[in-house]
Amino acid sequence: MHPSAKTIVWTAAKFAVPVAIITWLGFFHIDWAQLSLQPKNYALLACALIVALCGVSLSFARWCMLVRCQGISLSMVEAFRISSICYLFNFISAGSVGGDLFKAIFLAKRRPGRRIEAVASVFVDRGVGLFGLVLLVAIAMWVADPPGSSDENRDQLGQIKLVAAVLVGVGTVVLSVLVFGGKGVDRLVRWGSRLRWVGPLIGKVGAPLRMFHRHPIAFFFAIVMSLGVHTLLVISMYLIAKSLYLDPPTLLDHFVIVPIGMLAAALPITPAGLGVYEAAIEWLYRIIPATKTTASGTLVALVFEIVKVVMAVIGTLFYWTANAEERESIEAAEHVETKSS
Q1: Model-level pTM?
Q2: Hey, which residues does 271 pair with through a beta bridge?
């Protein structure tokens, strides 16, 4: 198959999967007649958009802080501009990793002598974000202790709680070694850099990651900021549910439902997790609340996706007004993704 035809087929397939999932969910899991009878609160919808914007903006500020910890100069305005374009890119790449590639390429081009550090900042930002998400799941599961609506659901919730606890434990150990480890960790990195196959990679990436050893407070604040980001997104989702339905799951329920759905959407399956996120939220709306709700998780998740698209419009404006340096980085990222697909 010709490379251009292969790219077209692959792109079509990426978007066909979420469209099929969303169509199926919308047909079988949304009671449109019942929804039409529900009073709508558009003021809450507007608040949901504002809260979500605050959450995404906080994630942009987190990345800027982590970049500066690597010794790379980056203004907050520049960080918001690049991050906004990356947020747009997440909607045209499988999963939620497309924007990360552009960030890494942009910083590498801007600071040729600090390329490894640039890539490390993006890698750590993604890792801290995921750790904050898993941590929020674990906290919500233990605090809320959702009873579920059946014995089978309680068993599934128990498994989710166990997995979340294990992931938080492993993540805490890894981050603690990374940030607070002493000279022994540096010696381990040097030893690993001499290994036959993975040595070059460890040698190039290990040292930049260890730079956060000199910024433990900033690293701690990055985790706190991650919790803040996901908390604001949970609140945004809850406001959407309240604007559409009279009896949605409680805010505490949403602190369990939304982070788990986001973890599912983070898997590189569909563009921006479309379809996967809706399916996960629909399932969680049925098993988490102790009292059955008439709210459709599918519809609430779809409206949340619309809110995200509205936020991505800002990235579109920055994309159209990108300067030459940003255009070169965008083209390089598109070229890499085309080759990988």
Answers
A1: 0.77
A2: 94, 95
